[in-house]
Design goal:
By secondary structure, this protein is an all-alpha fold. The chain is built from one helix and no strands.
Length: about 90
């Protein structure tokens, strides 16, 4: 019956719960700040990758063979004459 009169746990458990909530809030805040700073860098890398792909496509177009206009090739119907590139730009 001695354990029923022990009041030390009444203040220990709420303080431990409060400290756990504070630690979780600090970790969540640090995670948010880190994510906030890394997202622009990831978006910049994505744009750089797209620019590199576009540059490679331009180099391929420049170094490729020219179309023979003497034999009246229809450039609108031949596949591979036109190239499209879609940019995916971040907001």
């Amino acid at each position: 019956m001695k354990f029923l009169k022990n009041n030390a746990g009444q203040t220990f458990l709420p303080m431990r719960l409060l400290m756990s909530i504070v630690v979780i809030a600090v970790i969540a805040t640090l995670f948010y700040l880190g994510l906030k700073h890394i997202m622009p860098a990831m978006a910049e890398n994505k744009v750089e990758r797209q620019i590199t792909e576009l540059e490679a496509m331009f180099n391929e177009m420049i170094s490729g063979d020219a179309r023979n206009l003497d034999i009246m090739e229809n450039y609108k119907e031949r596949p591979g004459e036109r190239r499209t590139f879609k940019f995916d730009l971040p907001s």
